[in-house]
Design goal:
alpha/beta, elongated
Length: 341
């Protein structure tokens, strides 16, 4: 029987790098220079396509396949939806790479050649017939590999926002562990109902939040669950590596881990009706951030007051010491985020 086969190429990597590097002029120049280099045709199904191609060809089909009539459904299709539809409805055997992209192809009708030529432009892809198989490959797939977040996280996050639901704390842990290239790709994903910019700002641009969430993400489930309990998760239970106390690590941890401090996640504001198209009022976290130093129990903490709408659901990561009488020390605020389902 005919089937649509979608292959996903993704490699998960973990690192913590300041997001400000994304704006570094040298990085921008490097990426611009790399973007001008053509992908070797051997890596594009043997086809000469993309930047620098002398005789570009994005679609190679037999005359029989070129003339086959195709009528796509009326709703615009994502790339993977188009490929799946061809496999399910037009009896093609489809083998393709799959990346998380937000581009859509509007309804098309006509020959397969016409539909795929439109798709090649819209999805920056090449299509080639190989016997009874239709092969598809993204032209910038080396960049896609670097930016792709492993399954099932992108699909899960997109589904949550598409259904007007918030990301949860465990989703934030996975997002914090993404590389900068992966976060850039997620930042660029926008299809009208989905916008990750606010969550990425609070999860990854705030380095304290990113550091703590990455540590939580590496802890066993039975351990990390304690972060939502009143007593919190003792920092000592995280079994922090020496890197956590290095100059690049979070300063508050260096003095807190052996002082009986626990990490807690508290709901900072009640959930409000969520409209992903408008969302909470847009803010500039950089201009709206005020940093003040505060000493508490021998710990120097950098407090960040971010202008977050009052009704925006938020989770506050804070340090507390049971029985000390000291008020909790807020370290990072995640929004729009809820603790759990």
């Amino acid at each position: 029987s005919h089937a649509s086969v979608i292959l996903q190429a993704a490699v998960i990597r973990y690192r913590i790098v300041p997001m400000r590097e994304l704006m570094d002029p040298a990085t921008v120049q490097r990426d611009a220079a790399l973007a001008k280099l053509p992908t070797p045709k051997d890596a594009l199904l043997g086809m000469d396509a993309g930047p620098g191609a002398k005789n570009p060809a994005a679609v190679v089909l037999s005359s029989e396949w070129m003339a086959r009539a195709v009528q796509l459904p009326p709703a615009p299709l994502l790339r993977w939806q188009l490929l799946s539809w061809l496999g399910d409805h037009d009896s093609f055997n489809v083998v393709a790479d799959q990346y998380t992209l937000s581009q859509h192809l509007s309804a098309e009708r006509g020959t397969l050649a016409k539909v795929l030529k439109s798709a090649s432009v819209r999805f920056d892809s090449v299509f080639k017939q190989d016997g009874e198989f239709l092969l598809a490959r993204r032209i910038p797939w080396p960049d896609d590999d670097a930016a792709e977040i492993p399954w099932p996280f992108p699909e899960r996050w997109i589904a949550l926002q598409s259904s007007h639901k918030y990301l949860t704390l465990d989703n934030c842990e996975a997002m914090a562990a993404c590389t900068d290239d992966q976060l850039i790709g997620l930042w660029a994903y926008a299809d009208g109902a989905v916008d990750f910019t606010k969550v990425i700002k609070s999860v990854a641009i705030d380095n304290d939040a990113r550091f703590l969430l990455t540590l939580l993400g590496q802890a066993p489930v039975r351990v990390k669950r304690r972060v939502t309990l009143p007593a919190g998760l003792p920092l000592a239970a995280l079994k922090l590596s020496p890197e956590a106390f290095a100059p690049g690590g979070m300063p508050v941890l260096r003095e807190s881990v052996y002082s009986g401090y626990s990490l807690t996640a508290e709901v900072g504001a009640p959930a409000a009706p969520y409209d992903p198209l408008t969302g909470p009022p847009r803010i500039n976290l950089t201009l709206g951030q005020r940093e003040t130093a505060k000493r508490s129990g021998g710990v120097l903490v950098l407090m960040k007051d971010m202008l977050i709408p009052d009704q925006a659901p938020r989770v506050v990561l804070q340090l507390s010491r049971q029985g000390s009488g000291e008020p909790p020390i807020p370290v990072a605020t995640l929004w729009p985020v809820v603790i759990g389902p």
